[in-house]
Amino acid sequence: MAETPLFSIVIPCCNYGHWLPRAVNSVLAQDGSDWELLVINDGSTDTTDAVATELLHQHQPRLRYLAQANRGVAATRNRGIDATTGRYLIFLDADDEMTPGALGVYREVIARHPGVDMVAGGYRVVDADGRERRRQVGSLPRSPRRRLQRYLFTKKLHFSNGAVAIRREVFAVRRYPEHLRAVEDIPVFAYLMACRQLAVTPAPLAIIHRHAGSLRHNAGQAAAAGMALVDELFRPGVMPDWAVVYRAAYETQRCLSLFRTCYLAGERNNALGFYHRALREDPVRTLSRWSYLRKYLSLRLGLHRR
User: Fold this and answer.
1) What are the CA-CA distances from residue 151 to residues 109, 186, 187, 200 (Å)?
2) pTM of this prediction?
C-alpha cells in the first residue's frame, strides 16, 4: 500500500453483518496499491463484529477494523475521516458494493482534473426483487448558484455516497452533522455544489442495494431529523451568503418531502402536519405541486391505505 494513499474507503456498518463481506470484497477486488480500507462497526448487535474480525484475519493489513458504541452514520463517517489519511474519501454503505474497476475510473478523472474536490459517478440500483435501474448524476451546471438550485429543488442531480470521492480538505470546513441521524449527507453535497470544484463521470461506480431494512428508507429517522436539516444546510460560516436566499423555498420543499415520507409510511397525522406547515410557508408553491396535493386530499378523504 502507498505510504499516503490516494483513496480511503470507509465502510460504516450497523447491523449489516450479513452483507458486509460483499462490500469488503468489492473493495479488495480493486486494482492498485494507492488505497486503504477501514470498516467501522457502529454499535452493531448482530454478527458484524464476528464477520469483521474474520475478514480482518483474512485480509490484514489491507483491511483495518474499528468498533464503537452506536453513534449514527454521520459520527461514524467523521471518525473514518479522522482515522484515515487518503487524499480522497469514499464512504461505502455496508450493504452496497463498488463496481469492478471503480478506483481506476476515479484515478482517470482526477488525473484530468487534478484540483477537483469531488468526483461523482453513476450507479446501479438493485431492488429487493432483483430489478435493476441505472442512474446518472445528471447535467452539472458550471455556475455554483445553478448547481445548488438544481440539487436542492429539481431532483435532477443524483448522488450516492458509494459512487462519490471527496477531497479530504473539504471536511475541514464541512463535516457530517452528527445531530442528524438521517439526511446527513445533504448539507455536505449542498456545500460542495455551492463552494467546490466538481467532476462527473457516466461510469457506474457503485451498486446500491435496496431492501426493507435500508436506512435510506427509514421514515422514522427522516421525520426525527425534521426541519433541523434546514438550519444545518444554511449554517452561517459554511454556506456562502448568497445561498441564504434559497432558505425559505427549501423550508417548503423540506416540509413536502417529509409529508411524502410520512404518507408512504402510513403516518397520517405526521404527514398532515408537514403538509399544513408547507401551506403556511408558501401556499402557492405547495398547492401547485399536484402530486403532493393529490396525496394530501386522499388522506383528508380517507382514501389512502398503506
Assistant:
1) 22, 9, 11, 14
2) 0.92
Domains in the chain: boundaries? 7-216, 240-300
Tens of pLDDT, residue by residue, the chain (306 residues) = 557 999 999 999 999 999 999 999 999 999 999 999 999 999 999 999 999 999 999 999 999 999 999 999 999 999 999 999 999 999 999 999 999 999 999 999 999 999 999 999 999 999 988 899 999 999 999 999 999 999 999 889 999 999 999 999 999 999 999 999 888 999 999 999 999 999 999 999 999 998 876 544 456 666 667 789 999 999 989 999 999 999 999 999 999 999 998 898 888 898 999 999 999 999 999 999 999 999 999 999 887 665
What one-letter code names the amino acid at 95? Answer: D
In CATH, the number for domain 7-216 is 3.90.550.10
The span from the first CA to the last CA of the chain, in angstroms, equals 51
Cα-based distances in Å from 147 to 15, 139, 224, 235: 35, 9, 28, 18
Q: Which residues contact 128 (CB under 8 A, 6 or more apart)?
A: 210, 211, 212
| 191 φ, ψ (degrees, to nearest 5) | -60, -45
Closest CA to 65 of 20, 19, 127: 20
